[in-house]
## 1
Amino acid sequence: MSALLQVRGLSHHYGHRIGCQDVSFDLHPGELLCIVGESGSGKSTLLKTAAAQLTPSSGSVRYHQRDGGWLDLDELSEADRRRLAREEWGFVTQNPRDGLRLNVSAGANVAERLMALGMRNYGQLRDIARGWLERVEIDPSRIDDAPTAFSGGMQQRLQIARTLVTQPRLVFMDEPTAGLDVSVQARILDLLRRLVNELGLAAVMVTHDLAVARLLASRTMVMQGGRVVETGLTDQILDDPQHPYTQLLVSSVLTT
Amino acid sequence: MTSNYNFAFLDENTKRMLRRALLKAVAIPGYQVPFGSREMPLPYGWGTGGIQLTAALLGPDDVLKVIDQGADDTTNAVNIRRFFARVAGVATTERTTEASVIQTRHRIPETPLREDQILVFQVPEPEPLRTLEPREAETRTLHALADYGLMHVKLYEDIAQYGHIATSYDYPVLVDGRFLTSPSPIPKFDNPKLDHSPALMLFGAGREKRLYAIPPYTRVESLAFDDHPFEIQRWEHQCEMCGSDESYLDEVVVDDRGSRMFVCSDTDYCDQHRAEQAA
């Protein structure tokens, strides 16, 4: 099976500082890849660079389109980049308030991407929005409430609904469960696992939580100081870490 | 006419700059063209954009009409009309049919316009997306890419909150199938008059330093949803002065006991209609 996203020697520098350095990976359709590492290890930079939100200092990202052709993200025009981000990709931010439009209702948030794709039937938009609120376990009767009236966990679920409503092929997630309490985290992870399976979408997820990787990801990449130090099947990495840093990371998880 | 000023107040180079910008605006219907807005002898928000456009358009033989919310006799209209009578010496009129240039704030005259007339709008906020997207660089990109899904978010919110599209003025339009455009704060009652209008329509925003145009006979669509089509306001009343049941009505409070009456907002139309009925 051919890869969906092909990343080769990708680097992004902030001036003299390294954001991420010489990262390569393939992401296959239906696969969930986790990027783990401590704070400041370049996870989010890598994610944003791969999602074409940051311009790479060197290296390339190629995306396999629905029609079978390869798209080099470097050569993408702004119009194409936005079209891709709107129609085929999704991006879930760590802070739902960054990914949501806070001054409009939950329903409008979910329906926005559909309207951007040209859907112009209000009744239909409402039905789809209600359906998606239900899928992310938000009471559909709250469709007209402002996201600011939602709890943090609900906001995050709303952001997930808003992102997945157009059925993207590829979703980038930047610590979607960070900053939420443990029970809420569990629900969101459960939800994500279900949706990823149902929709068969590929996802790259950044997290500092190894439990999240264990629960969701088939493959995991470990980053330190902007470089990938270890990569492989999640179980393999977590049960039999090879690199000293991964060993440290795994051993530092509290076990109860 | 006072001789202390250049004809129509602005110097010739400024008028030339404005005319160049206007030509560009006409060439790209609905596109907001930046221009070097000048300090005018009245404050921003009182029609500085419209006045500069009018100054650039006027010739000695023009006949100027100025309306404010449809009325010829309100402060803004009277002052701007008197201003141009003084600095350009042009003839002024209150009759829509006699005017060659009509500067307007917030209305389009009820009397159908002709090909030899120009309508100049005063615009407070030329960017229809501004309330949804505060960044200028971003709104320009959205215009460049014709990425207008955002505008429907606002209409969606209207229906979700009020059960119908509650936006009643400054109702967003798509000009020539391309540029999302603010029609200035005219009531949506006037939106259908923009579509395929025989008269040239020019829009000037002095504070925002933008002007744009809807050339004659250009397609202008008001945005809507398939199942919530665009609708204009309707009244259960008729004008109490002239009896018209097809013009835009103002509700006027007439005493301190809550009595009110409905009258045409277009004073010239009301006068003409009354004269017709008296005859």
Note: Residues 182-199 of chain A form the longest helix (18 residues).
## 2
Amino acid sequence: MEFYQFHPTGIAGMGILITEAVRGEGGILKNRRGEAFMEEYAPKLRDLAPRDLISKAILSELKRGNGMRGDRQIDDYVLLDATGLGKQVVEEKIPDIAEFCRVYLKIDPVTQPIPVQPTAHYGMGGVPTDHNGRVLRGEGKGTYAGLYAAGECACVSVHGANRLGTNSLVDLVVFGRRAGRHIAEYAANADLGHLPSGSDSYARDKIARLKTGKGAHGGAIRETLQKTMMEKVGIIRTGEEIRAAIGTVEDLRDQYREARVQDGNSAFNTDLLELLELENLLDLAFVTAHAALRREESRGGHTRDDFPERDDARWLRHSLAKLTEGAPEFSYKDVDTSLFAPKPRVY
Amino acid sequence: MRITFTIQRFDPEKDAAPHFEGYELELPPESRVLDGLVHIKTYLDGSLAFRKSCAHGICGSDAMLIDGEERLACKTILRDLGAADGSSIRIEPLKGLPVQRDLMVDQERFFSAYRSVRPYLINDEPAGPRERKQSQAEREAIDDPTKCILCASCYSACPVIREKNPAFIGPAAVLNAARFVFDSRDRGTADRLPSLDRPDGVWACENKFRCTQVCPRGIKVTKSINLTKRKIESLRK
């Protein structure tokens, strides 16, 4: 879960994705001095370097005071200059992007550069599955009968520590299809099973508690969680920052125990739905921060400023987290490198 | 700036009829209407019910009436509505579909009409080893209808559905039929005719152009409907 991909170009302050195609067509990232800074970070690939590298480069520029505001804050931004593309290319190749710019930024990308900043994009980690979408019980322990995961929530381990652009299609159309076929086959022969009485009490008790909570609404918890994770478990991390984030997330999880659904209705209760999602977000953030703290190296979507090198001897392995009470428990699994051995990344 | 959101509320478990409630907010003028709704739900009234997902005009979840016009809440900027300090914005659910709660409508009628036109590629011919190829011009012929996000704005705005023929399958259903009728790879037009070539199908359309006017994706919906009518006529000959 510590491997999280940040897309380098979201609309500043909104996170709306500005597709790589803009740079593919010739768009160039620039700092406040008008410098095409990617030349320094990736001399060969420049603006077409991998996402994590560009996200880190933008963050470095912001920290140097080269962002557009120049205040060295993480929410500063840089510019994506697509003015060299010409009106025809913009209208024909990236019409949606042009529309986002016009609606949300009131700028025309044909004549004005787009303010961008990195935005959280894709979790490389997830529920461990086999190639048929079946959820793994753990190293060498087989699978859970009838439990499947596919898509971004799953981890079939094809992306390693860093997914390449468009490769989420593998999770969707390849493994989603395989999982679907396997489920159809399984369901045709499986019986309904026998639930012990009171199986629903866990969920019913939880909902009853949320409806009678004494604390605040969950919205403020979500906002603090987002800010904390972006600032302290984001693109570039340090042990000290992650420890601070874990402390905050622990506090938020305590607050959540008192959180309250304001909406007492039983139909279309999106307030309850969002509060249940918030609990999942808190758990995932907690696991992500702990996994990131343990991994004392930098690899793919996980960069530690205090451990900048990749350490294959200690860390060429998957982190498996189990969350019950207290801190998550971790075990580790070897990486299958039979097809692709890790190499130094030079761009 | 200070702004009041006047929102139609309806709770089927408590209310006999809808009523309006006002919420006073402090929002930057460049905010989306959706930002205001989320703020209300988070800090003022958690019971306000509305649909949302992507928040940037791609998923089609948050179509509603904003100052009387069908719009996506996530694509409507306060300043663009002419909102100034102290002004008020009126927000209601889409028309033509039963209200489930507050700003949420029951979309079943809309989606069953959509499903009735078989909005998917129909072609039993073998696809060949790789793919069914299409020229650039052939692709352009279906470019406009592929932009539809099924937000139901056009369905809500259609005066035919509201005033004359509630059984009309509606602009989006015809548009999504056109998406495949004019696809060079598709062979399913005959399968779609039972839904399209009848009084509640394409022929219900009276060219009022409201669908085209409100479409948040800028699709020329009425044009696609007319092209479909002509296609059906040409098949009869």
Note: The beta strands of chain B are 2-9, 19-26, 63-66, 69-72, 87-92, 99-101, 104-105.
